[in-house]
Amino acid sequence: MSLVAVGGYGRAELSPRSDLDLLLLHDGADPDAVAALADRLWYPVWDLGLALDHSVRTPAEARRTAAEDLKAQLGLLDARHLAGDLGLTTALRTTVLADWRNQAPERLPALRELCEERAERQGELRYLLEPDLKEARGGLRDATALRAVAASWLADAPREGLADARRRLLDVRDALHLTTGRATDRLALQEQDQVAAGLGLLDADALLRQVYEAARVIAYAGDVTWREVGRVLRSRAVRPRLRKLARSGATSSEGWWRATGGPSAAESRAASGPRSPKASWNRTARWCSPVPRAPNATPCSRCAPRPPPPRPDSRSPRTPYGAWRPPHAPARPWPAEAREQLVTLLGSGRPTVDVWEALEAEGLVSLLLPDWDRVRCRPQRNAVHLWTVDRHLIETAVRASAFTRRVSRPDLLLVAALLHDIGKGWPGDHSVAGETIARDVAARIGFDRHDVTVIATVVRHHLLLVDTATRRDLDDPATVRAVADAVGAQGTLELLHALTEADALATGPAAWSAWRASLVADLVARVSAVLSGDAPNPPEDAAPTAEQERLAIEALATGAPVLSLRARPEPSTEPSGDPEPLGVELRIAVPDQEGVLPAAAGVLALHRLTVRTAELRALDLPDGVDGSVLLLDWRVAAEFGSLPQAARLRADLVRALDGTLDIAARLAERDAAYPRRRGVVAPRPV
């Protein structure tokens, strides 16, 4: 008999609260003795309070179980002898590995499907604020799957940084188990500061960046490895066709290549043409090569001529397009062709993401854009944001590529999209810091002085349109004039408009809506009119409607607030044709007195009403009516549930105005009643 560690125990990857995966292996000669020994082994482990996953099998039974259960087979691949008959363990390992290699063409696609299903359920580890270190894509499960692929001998994972990435995730899981005292793999928000302290890291952001970096390495290694597995399996599948071609005497290289599953000549030209992301990748890498020396100069070891780069295969997975790791960044400023190829890459749409990930993995991005290191894998502790800062910048460029026909300078739009949040790697206002960085990067890339100024201005004011449109009164000429002064030119305005939409779409579904789009478009139209010199005259105050006069007279007569709450038909501005609910109209008439606006706003907050628009005016009453009335027109929507009754709103407003309702105290009391998450520290302002 022998005692064998399998799974995580077999890999020596146990964390403080991990299960023990044990297999008692026997030859089947004496079942009673085996059962007695199993009891003597298992019960002491249970008495210690340790979680135990155990089984008792003969080698034949273990082999049969592995053939039926892929997960059991994966666990046996990591079998490690603990005690007893070493020969029995060695024979099982040899048999299981041989079976795995023989069954690899059928087993590896099933393993890949398991990985994809798990990623669909758990998401991308490198983008989650509360990631599952084990199950999410790029986590420990994927690292284990890569070991299994390597054991099949069909393909191997990129080795650079992979072992270190796995070790870092294991260290974080160890600290998480020690902090929580539980067998958990989910790095919850309330535990992150304590885990970071246990690992000697500065804060929770530093912890997440370390986790994201490790996950990125593992995920990229998985992409490369599974791509290679697919290539190998396709080549095996077409061998009968190759033999048939050989017997038929076919000599066409095109036919031979198509028989092996490769693309046609036309497809190859389209995939590697001068405007493709792949071609941009290669040319960008080439501009990072050393500066050529004079013909008679003796090259140093760093600048010596290099052999042609190898064709990507399983032996060189870190060079996905045949590029090499360059020794230094390109000259400053960049050559015009290098700048054009960067713009081409950014404007290629969704394929840009995969190419940029390859550039990141090869270290080219840090050479091209040194400031990128400060935003790489930087978390954004905001429920609206789906991505880390660096991925958000690429997603914004992808979104902006769809708007290049709306602007006169698409190159400036794409570069501004890439740089608009680059200042988040520095303290203070990220727009201000980003302006300085964008100015330097744009000059380094090779834009002229005017274009550098435009890019810097767009980065500095990339939040201006949406903030102004949703928080300020667009009917106020001073508001429109302030935006026009900040923008300065029509070309800059159209760039800002396109970037505003691309930024919001890249942030997440909650950041953009038809309502926001209509407000921003309205503001852009008004600012454009000012910049073109044909701004309309300020509108005169409209005469009060009959309803407004009725409310005002009633408020004067009663000496108390009067409310009117009713729905209004919504404008059909939704691009899809479905109107977005913008709330209902709330009209309040109050005899003129101090504190009306804060009291009304407080009552709305107390009843959980979101204010979409607000307008305050003093109403001119008909002749013969003395007194002054304030009229407040609101557009409100309930945060959840149904709208409150108008009578309740009026009663609370009366109490707020006479001082018997302490709104601040009520709001503070409600806020204190919310459940608090232990250990959460507010993120630093950016």
UniProtKB/TrEMBL annotation:
Task: Supply the EC number(s).
Answer: 2.7.7.59, 3.1.4.-
Q: Which CDD domains match?
A: HDc
UniProt KW keywords: Hydrolase, Magnesium, Multifunctional enzyme, Nucleotidyltransferase, Transferase
Q: Which reaction does it catalyse?
A: [protein-PII]-uridylyl-L-tyrosine + H2O = [protein-PII]-L-tyrosine + UMP + H(+); [protein-PII]-L-tyrosine + UTP = [protein-PII]-uridylyl-L-tyrosine + diphosphate
User: Tell me, what is one Gene Ontology molecular-function annotation carried by this entry?
Assistant: phosphoric diester hydrolase activity
What regulation of activity is recorded for this protein?
Uridylyltransferase (UTase) activity is inhibited by glutamine, while glutamine activates uridylyl-removing (UR) activity.
Provide the residue span(s) of the region labelled Uridylyltransferase. Answer: 1-258
The keyword Magnesium is assigned to this record:
yes
Give residue spans, biased composition: Low complexity: 317-326
Q: Where is each HD domain found? A: 389-490
Q: Which Gene3D superfamilies match?
A: cca-adding enzyme, domain 2
Q: InterPro entries annotated for this entry?
A: HD/PDEase_dom, HD_domain, NT_sf, PII_UdlTrfase/GS_AdlTrfase, UTase/UR
What is stated about domains? Answer: Has four distinct domains: an N-terminal nucleotidyltransferase (NT) domain responsible for UTase activity, a central HD domain that encodes UR activity, and two C-terminal ACT domains that seem to have a role in glutamine sensing.
Q: Which family does it belong to?
A: Belongs to the GlnD family.
Write the protein's name. Bifunctional uridylyltransferase/uridylyl-removing enzyme
Species name: Streptomyces haneummycinicus
Q: From which lineage does this chain's organism come?
A: Bacteria, Bacillati, Actinomycetota, Actinomycetes, Kitasatosporales
